[in-house]
Amino acid sequence: MNPEAEQFERLITLAQRLVQAIEGDIEALRTGQLQKMRSLDPEVQKLLVLYTREAQGVDPSRSKSAPVETKKRLTAVTAKFRDVLGLQQRLLTRMRNASEGIVKAVADEVQRQRAPTITYAPGQTQNRYRQTSVPMIFNGVV
Asked: How far apart are CA 15 and CA 42, in angstroms?
């Protein structure tokens, strides 16, 4: 087996393992069991670094000598890898938006309950539109 084919085989193996980990994350996100997400596991982080190094080491001019079947398998697993990454990103975005919405709703309700009662007394008109503390969204970029 030539070096390019060996490199492609390593990439295929790494991509398959990463796809399995990301599919586990997707299942954990769908079931609401975030503590079971595998992408935060140090082993998966190492796999990702190894995959990145291997992918950066691919020389397009030399990869033409790799077997056609290996190239097809690499193309297929790479497409699947991109698909599951996209799905994971969409689910994570939904979860983040939902959690930020909950935090904002709770902060708005706390602010509403802490706000002083406004009366129609003559001395109250100057403080009528004064706000107390403003809620802060913790997961957003400030």
From this structure: 16
Other C-beta atoms closer than 10 Å to the C-beta of 56 total 7
Chain-centroid distance, C-alpha 97: 12
Whether 67 contacts 96, CB under 8 Å: no
Q: What is the DSSP letter of 65?
A: G
Inter-residue contact 44 to 38 (CB < 8 Å): yes
Neighbouring C-beta atoms of residue 21, cutoff 10 Å: 21
DSSP H stretches of helix in the chain: 3-31, 42-56, 68-114
pLDDT at 128 over 60: no
Is the overall model pTM greater than 0.70, yes or no? Answer: yes
Enumerate residues 6+ apart whose C-beta is below 8 A from 139.
96, 99, 100, 103
